[in-house]
Amino acid sequence: MKRLKIHKGDQVMVVSGKEAGKSGKVMRVEAAEGRVVVEHLNMLKKHTKPNPKKNPQGGVIEREGPIDISNVMLMCPSCNQPTRVGYRFTEGGAKVRVCRRPGCGSDIDKA
Ligand SMILES: [Zn+2]
Predict the structure, then answer these.
(1) Coil/strand/helix, residue 33
(2) What domains can be seen in the chain, in order of their start residue?
């Protein structure tokens, strides 16, 4: 499976499209499609018919739609800014993501 720079649980900021400038937590990564689903962002309205089991009223359900991964940037938990992602290897050989903002360079993953 392709390893993406954005992981489930990350805080990301949307950098283009109608949700640009908003940030949220990644709920799901669709690696094959190169998309992420971000909590409360890119809400899509879905009209549903009444369904006695799931939803007796019917009506409009709002749901997060996927966002192309190229439209989001990872938020660095240290400097709290959207950043490009770099990698480094720890002494133990673990690969961790690092913030590439000048003056920060903090690890994004716990080593
Ligand atoms: Zn940073």
Answers:
(1) coil
(2) 1-75 (2.30.30.30), 77-111 (no CATH)
pLDDT of residue 2: 59
How many Å lie between the centroid of ligand 1 and the Cα of residue 87?
A: 13
Calculate how far, in angstroms, residue 61's C-alpha sits from the geometric centre of ligand 1.
37
- β-pairing, 35-38 with 43-48? unpaired
- Kindly give the distance from the C-alpha atom of residue 30 to the centroid of ligand 1, in angstroms, as a whole number: 25
Report the predicted TM-score, pTM, of the whole model to 2 decimal places: 0.85
Q: What is the mean pLDDT of residues 22-34?
A: 96
pLDDT tens figures, 47-86 = 888 988 887 888 898 999 999 999 999 999 999 999 999 9
